[in-house]
Write a structure and sequence with these properties.
heterodimer; A: 3-stranded antiparallel sheet; about 15% strand; globular; B: alpha/beta; Rossmann fold; 5-stranded mixed sheet; 4 helices
């Protein structure tokens, strides 16, 4: 018998991501990822001064806004012919580096960990550690008042869930600590961003805020705290889970996509775009030892199953967005981007497959197969990779500021070109992020974004080939259709960002009407 | 511990999604007004948990957001977060969208949430655009007046002197 499960996760926005899976004989037989994204954003940008693009696209996402700002500035750098000086490049790296240190631990502790641990095991903690007992007290207090919302996953623990009270209680303690740390990491970005919370620093040609020694030293002291947490808590936890209690899930490769990986590369270590911290590359069919060069002209978006007027696959720069809700085959507002016709997974796993740092290869060699757990591990390893490099960037910029030789902006190219096109290809925490701009008569003629979640959550393409998340779900064991924990684990392991910053309050009761004051 | 002596007015929402950004629009209008030094007006934009880092010295928090309650567009609400069940049932499964709910929940968990009042307005339109809809625009002066009154009240609550211009 085939049963359908619909996980419709986000109720607070107009357009949401829904995951629909068909389960037969305890396994996912078919999967559909349905979502809305960015429809109409290009209309908002058309006719604007191109320099505004980095400020507008910064508002696109509540979590990764600086990534959009950066990709947008890169597209403009390309169109304007800007030569971003070293200081500008380094400060961009430091603002975004802080964002990565923020995002990855947050994703693990606050969005994913609860899919893997049985939170109620905290009640069984019998140890004598005062810190852990305080955590236990806190959780039990919430349980008593029946207010465990932030900590309660929707589904019941299954055979893969971690139930050891010691491990679970420590994980919850780290969850709380991670909340403090994420705020510190965000503050680091804000220090160099000129304005907080939505920073205003990254513009075409470089950055706008010249740092002084005091700001750099504040950045460094926050960095020390954040790195200490990343190295000694976050990475250790992920590796302990991945190679310990979650090894069966990891070794089973639950949640693997088809094995096509794409990284645009990001974080230039030196001038130009060659020496990147995360290298660019393409891998097809799990052939991880054959990393090919990325040819950005080969990206095409298909709309066969998307709610747009039919047309051939188009490069983003030629992209059109004519909504058509009547299409019979249509099931998503997300277009289907493909690279040489392949559905590419983007994000930490893709980046680490391309870069192959030692710490990651060790895990792969110890039996962790590509899949949901490997995605978390890749995220942790690449966070470690960035913590090593971020000190070098900070040292360089500090030296430049100290000697009065820090240049942060290429002021010669501030004027808008009459007609130009530009591409900003970069890595956001969730994966390959591309912005494309077409300037005519000094105004934005067309602006297109292909965000990481468009790649990962894409619907079927014109040939009927499912997107990476859909592929990752097909074949997944779901022993109990009322408790599709593996489905949620897989979707979340991609760190999907679908609601892109809508943050309306939608109260759960009509009682709100009693509070009307005007 | 920092001294808690500040009134923080936090306008949140997405300013490129028309009425969704009404909190940000109001914050920007308030930023053009004179307030005592211990009143801070912040454009919180689409931030969620990041806002936790700004609570250290806050004695009173006033949040302005778009609230969808099924009332007439432009309706204004004033409530304290624990008085209304603002957390939708499906909250638990949100994949990665940490918004103002999460901020309130987690600040409560960390015991760092100052006394908080939320002002909300019912939207008409939530679609790409930088302009507010007509019914929301028409009520912005009223919302601004209500929030300003709240600031005056809050300053008294925390034992600070509101400046004369505010009372007038």
């Amino acid at each position: 018998m085939t049963q359908k499960i619909v996980i419709d996760p986000v109720t607070r926005i107009e357009g949401h991501l829904a995951i629909e899976v068909e389960v037969e004989n305890g396994k996912v037989k078919n999967a559909w990822s349905k979502g809305t994204m960015f429809r109409g954003l290009e209309a908002l940008l058309r006719g604007k001064d191109p320099r505004d693009a980095s400020y507008v696209t910064d508002r696109v996402c509540g979590v990764c806004s600086a990534s959009h700002q950066w990709a947008s500035a890169l597209a403009l750098d390309d169109a304007f012919g800007s030569d971003v000086p070293d200081g500008g490049r380094l400060i961009r790296n430091l603002i975004l580096g802080a964002q990565w240190l923020h995002d990855h631990p947050l994703h693990f502790y606050h969005l994913s960990a609860l899919d893997y641990i049985d939170i109620m095991a905290v009640a069984q903690y019998k140890g004598s550690d005062p810190g852990l007992n305080a955590v236990k007290g806190k959780i039990m207090k919430l349980v008593q008042v029946k207010d465990t919302a932030p900590l309660t996953p929707r589904y019941e623990p299954d055979e893969f869930s971690v139930t050891d009270p010691e491990i679970v209680t420590a994980a919850v303690a780290h969850y709380l600590k991670a909340l403090e740390i994420q705020a510190k990491a965000k503050r680091m970005g804000a220090l160099l961003g000129g304005k907080m919370p939505h920073n205003a620093a990254i513009v075409v040609g470089g950055v706008t805020a010249y740092p002084d020694m005091q700001i750099l030293s504040q950045y460094r002291s926050l960095l020390n705290e954040v790195v200490d947490f990343v190295e000694n808590v976050y990475v250790k936890d992920v590796l302990m889970f991945g190679t310990g209690p979650l090894l069966p899930l990891a070794a089973a490769g639950i949640g693997a996509s088809a094995g096509h990986y794409l990284s645009y590369g990001g974080f230039p270590n030196s001038a130009g775009n060659k020496d990147l911290l995360y290298p660019a590359g393409v891998i097809f069919d799990n052939k991880t030892d054959q990393v090919e060069r990325v040819n950005y002209d080969l990206i095409k978006e298909y709309v066969g199953y998307s709610w747009y007027d039919d047309g051939p696959g188009r490069h983003p720069l030629e992209g059109e967005t004519a909504v058509n809700r009547d299409k019979e085959k249509g099931y998503s507002f997300i277009k289907a981007p493909r690279y040489v016709g392949r559905a590419m997974e983007v994000g930490p796993l893709a980046r680490m497959m391309v870069a192959k740092p030692e710490a990651f290869m060790k895990l792969i060699n110890s039996g962790v197969k590509p899949g949901a757990v490997a995605r978390h591990a890749a995220r942790a390893v690449e966070t470690l990779v960035i913590t090593k490099q971020i000190y070098r960037w900070l040292d360089e910029v500090t030296e430049q500021v100290a000697s009065g030789k820090c240049r942060i902006h290429d002021t010669d190219t501030w004027e808008v070109p009459e007609n130009a096109t530009g591409a900003g290809l970069n890595e956001a925490p969730r994966g390959a992020l591309g912005h494309w701009i077409n300037i005519r008569n000094k105004k934005i003629e067309n602006y297109q974004l292909v965000v990481p979640s468009t790649w990962n959550l894409s619907p079927r393409d014109d040939k009927g080939v499912p997107g990476p998340v859909e592929q990752a779900l097909i074949g997944t064991p779901v022993p109990d259709v009322n408790n599709p924990l593996n489905v949620v684990r897989i979707v979340r392991s991609f760190d999907p960002c679908i609601s892109c910053a809508v943050h309306i309050i939608e109260p759960d009761s009509n009682r709100i009407l009693e509070f009307m004051v005007g | 511990m920092a001294v808690k002596n500040k009134v923080l007015v936090l306008g949140v929402g997405n300013s490129i999604l028309s009425d969704e950004g009404l909190g940000v629009h109001l914050a920007k209008r308030l930023q053009g007004e004179e307030f005592p030094d211990n009143v801070e007006i912040m454009d919180g934009g689409t931030r969620g948990l990041e806002l936790l880092s700004y609570m250290d010295d806050v004695a009173k928090l006033i949040i302005i957001d778009c609230v969808k309650a099924g009332a007439e567009p432009g309706s204004i609400f004033r409530f304290e977060p624990d008085k209304v069940d603002v957390i939708p049932r499906e909250y638990k499964i949100s994949f990665h969208d940490l918004g103002i709910y999460d901020f309130i929940q987690l600040a409560t968990l960390l015991e760092t949430l100052p006394p908080t009042v939320i002002f909300g307005m019912e939207p008409k339109e939530i679609d790409w655009g930088e302009e507010l809809s007509a019914p929301v625009t028409a009520k912005m002066d009223k919302l601004k007046a209500l929030v300003t009154d709240e600031i005056v009240l809050s300053l008294k609550e925390i034992g600070a002197e509101p400046c004369k211009e505010l009372i007038n």
